[in-house]
Specification:
The chain is of the alpha/beta class. The chain is built from 9 helices and 7 strands; from the N terminus they run βαβαβαβαβααβαααβ. The longest helix has 31 residues, at 102-132. Its EC number is 1.1.1.100.
Length: 252
Amino acid sequence: MIDLTGKVILVTGGSKGIGAVTVRTLVNAGAEVILHYCRSQTEAEAVAASVARDRCYLLAADLMLENAASTLWRDALKWRGHIDIIVNNAGIMQSAGIEDEFDIWSSAWQQTLQVNLVAVADLCREAIIYFKTRSGGTIINIASRAAFRGDDPNYLHYAASKGAVVALTRSIARGFAADNILAFTVAPGFVSTEMSNQFIQKCGEADIIRDIPIGKIAPPQDVANVIAFLASGLAAHATGTTIDINGASYVH
């Protein structure tokens, strides 16, 4: 049983999918969680209502905007006066291929890199600076199977952003381990969430499952369980590691 009592954790993109299940899992394990969301206030409130309300704090921020991530960190810090762990889960996945108009292509790259990479890097920067003033802390960044095996031609930007997150996390782990700052990457394959379900319906669930040896798409609880374990501090020497959650469809 993972016990996160006394830990304050910031989870970005916590209103839906993997983020929502992660928030519930962490709170139920004893943590106090800052649930970041962008526009999904109703969903965020529903997640908060499903757990101990005094241990789940809602905070809105649009990570598409420059400097929003730094402001989010400072606002999150005000709730309990400290943060022990950050889970960078927020991300976007929009379609844009090489045959689309350049404006569509360029916009998809810029927006995806801003949310999936730059905002993550900004939050990591804030966390590292803060953790160095304390006795350390933990960073858990959510990447994707696509970081390693690539993605569909219409999602080149998504795969690139997630590959960069892996490199970022490994660099943090190497550079700041001496400050007791741990950094991990979790790389899910297909997970049954609202975001991925649109892609699954488009491509055909049967074809996708055929490529997954375990024979089914992962539930978000699998990802949340791994995040909770990494947040527990029970495997400090695994810092820098990427944990695959893809049913053996790609193991690096």
